[in-house]
Amino acid sequence: MHHHDDPAWGPLPVRSAALRWLVLLPLTLLFLPLWWVLWVLLALCFYGVASVVQLFVYLVPRAESGAVRVLDATLGRVPFIPRWCVTPVELVREGDAAYYRARVERRIGKKARLVEKSPHLFAAHRDLDLGVHFYRGAGAGYVLRVATEAGWNLHPELRSHPRHRLRLRHSGR
After folding, report:
1. Which residues contact 157 (CB under 8 A, 6 or more apart)?
2. 99, 100, 83, 91: which is closest to 16 by C-alpha?
3. pLDDT in tens, 56-73
């Protein structure tokens, strides 16, 4: 598990306004569309390979969790929105911890209500994947604390990295 005093689980440092507006915004506008094209091409390749691997999984039932981990180890390491990108929310709300806390509470509460309402959800609907852009001002420790109160835990198979992404699974049903 994590250690509450570890700085990796705290809020990310606030980036200066000059860095956000003069460097990160132009880089985002120039390179993010190219990044998305590359990401989609990688996803298509990995899902093509995954469909072939799925035949193997049908033959060897215990290989399923390994196949999930392999897909996570490849495509899961390439984020859809990279850390160097600056989102519109970050341009305006950088350093506003109260906003990020409220955002985390709304998202976790909404997803928890969905899981509790629908008793027969697929396992994928019980998963919650939060990128660092979503919680950077609140910190991963805060997300995990709020999530634990709502019945969420760190995903048992997929790895979480507090400075990149948190992967949660609802413990109910």
Report:
1. 65, 68, 69, 72
2. 91
3. 777 776 666 666 677 777
